[in-house]
Design a protein that fits this description.
Elements lengths: L2 E7 L8 E2 L5 E2 L2 E2 L5 E5 L18 E3 L2 H4 L14 E5 L7 E4 L8 E6 L2 E7 L2 H11 L3 E5 L6 E2 L9 E2 L9 E3 H8 L15 E4 L15
Parallel strand pairs: 14-15
Antiparallel strand pairs: 1-2, 1-15, 3-4, 5-11, 6-7, 7-8, 9-10, 10-11, 12-13
Length: 214
């Protein structure tokens, strides 16, 4: 029998993920997945681990209330509910309010070939990441609509947030186990940054799936 063996979101693109017991599925992916992104201050181009490996050490956490699927879209979150960001060498954590900033400025951003609009999270977040990464950058947030369209041959009239191309990544745990039998050093699942890990399937079965009911 197929079961969900792992459920993950990555609130800030290219930073560490958060493991969940439940999640709210939206048209653009799991709630809070790739909701934020670090971009270059001058060009708005996204910064990934490919360019700055230090992002792999950035720890992200969300309050329990925000992670409960029943709370998605509700007005019941505490007014001080925030995304908490920590990293080695940074003396103080960064707190990013979950409530959208009323004074947020729109910023032009780029993820690969896509260019669109995001909202800037302000000078404190910019200063924190600029200090940590050693280059001028900004933290931006998904605006809620008008984001990257998914390739229509796979899903018509859907969009994603700041992921590389699709709202969700699904893998089977058996595929990783099979891959690791061929490697000198086994790889952990978080190297592939999936949202849903499927247990109980045969290796690479996901390559043949067209529709999935969860």
């Amino acid at each position: 029998m197929l079961t969900i063996g792992g459920l993950n979101i990555y609130p800030i693109k290219s930073c560490r993920g958060v493991s969940l017991q439940s999640a709210m599925l939206t048209e653009s992916g799991l709630a809070y997945d790739r909701e934020w992104m670090v971009v270059r201050e001058d060009t708005g181009k996204f910064i990934s681990q490919r360019e700055k490996g230090l992002l792999a050490l950035v720890q992200v956490s969300l309050p329990v209330e925000a992670l409960a699927a029943a709370q998605w879209g509700a007005a019941g979150l505490p007014p001080d509910a925030a995304l908490t960001v920590t990293a080695p060498g940074m003396t103080a954590p960064l707190k990013v309010p979950l409530a959208r900033r009323p004074d947020s400025e729109a910023k032009k951003v780029t993820v690969w070939e896509w260019t669109g609009t995001a909202t800037d999270e302000g000078p404190d977040a910019a200063a924190w990441f600029t200090t940590y990464l050693g280059l001028p950058c900004r933290l931006v947030r998904y605006v809620g609509s008008g984001m990257q369209p998914v390739a229509p041959e796979f899903a018509v009239k859907y969009e994603t947030r700041f992921s590389d191309g699709y709202p969700m990544l699904i893998v089977t745990q058996a595929a990783l186990a099979d891959l690791n039998t061929k490697l000198a050093e086994p790889l952990p699942m978080n190297r592939f940054r999936p949202n849903i890990e499927v247990a109980g399937a045969s290796p690479w079965a996901e390559d043949t799936w067209r529709d999935i009911d969860v």
